[in-house]
Every structure is written in structure tokens, then in C-alpha cells.
Amino acid sequence: MATPIKVVLSEDVETLGTSGDVVRVRPGYARNFLIPRGLAVPATESNLARVGDLKRAAAARAEKERAAAEEVAKKVGGVSVKIARAVGDENKMYGSVTTRDIEEAFAKAGVEIDRKKLVLAEPIKTLGLHDVALKLHPKVSVQLKVEVIKEGA
Predict the structure, then answer these.
(1) Euclidean distance between the first and final Cα of the chain, in Å?
(2) What is the pTM of this model?
(3) Are residues 142 and 77 in the same domain?
């Protein structure tokens, strides 16, 4: 088994730590994933000396991202969309409403969102009003209003 190596994170990695943290990871994970994507640098003496600078820069960047996410949350929070779907007997839907459908509906309403940030445990398969969470930042999320209606109604 390979011995873990130390790396300094230059970006926040959700399951590993925040920017500026010194973590021990497997060599292959560091060599093949973290370092090529710019998420980490090897823990050399010069990089360890820069840890304080990395943490300050990361804190400033995180605060800026959180503020931007709050602005988007305010903008998106007041918008609701209607998605029309064909239904059969007993109001049973054909197919379902997915994150892609929700993203397209909000785009038509003039609001750009990223479907990868939508939290939808499973596709919507019933008519009616549904709340869908949009996680813009680890500390900022907003509930979107999505109404699924009968097509042609």
C-alpha cells in the first residue's frame, strides 16, 4: 500500500478541506486528480510558507462568492415557474420533470441557474406545486417554486 503524502489545498475540496489546509492523501489521488486540476500543490517548504497567504486569499474569495450567491438568491427567490406536462387517465403524468426541465423553465423566465446546483432527490412525477432547493453556496440556498400543470390547461 502506498504511503500518504502531504499536499497544501489551494481550493476548497468538499470532502477533504478548505484552501490552505495541509492534508495527507494517497499519492495517486494527489498526482492524478488534485494537482492537475489546480486544487492542491505539493507540501514543499516554500508552499508551506505560503499557507497563511492562501488562507487569507481563500477567506476573501469565499466571502465574495457568498455575497454573490446571496444576490442571486434574492433575484431567484421571487420567481416561480410553471411546467406543462401531458397527463393520462387519473391525472397520471407521462414521464417526469427533471433538473434540466427546471433549468430551461427558469431560463425562459429570464433567470439563469445551474442545474447541477439544484437539489432534487428524484424527478418530479406528480402535478402540483413543488419546492426545489437550489444550493448556490455551502451557506446559501433558496427554495424555488415549480408548478407542474396539465398540458393544454
Answers:
(1) 63
(2) 0.66
(3) yes
Which residues have CB under 8 Å from 37's CB, separation 6+? none
Residue 37 structural domain: 5-49
> Structural domain tally of the chain?
2
The string of pLDDT tens digits covering residues 56-97 is: 887 888 889 889 888 888 888 778 899 988 888 887 888 889
Nearest-angstrom CA–CA distance, 17 and 54: 13
Chain mean position to CA 71? 16
Q: Which residue has the higher pLDDT, 37 or 54?
A: 37
Per the DSSP assignment, residues forming a β-bridge with 148 are 83, 128
Separation between Cα atoms, residue 128 and residue 146, nearest integer Å: 8
The amino acid present at 70, given as its one-letter code, is: E
Residue 64 lies in a domain: no
CA distance 107 to 53: 39
| Residue 54 lies inside a defined structural domain of this protein | no
Q: Do residue 95 and residue 134 come from a single domain? A: yes
Cβ-based neighbours of 57, under 8 Å, separated by 6 or more: 19
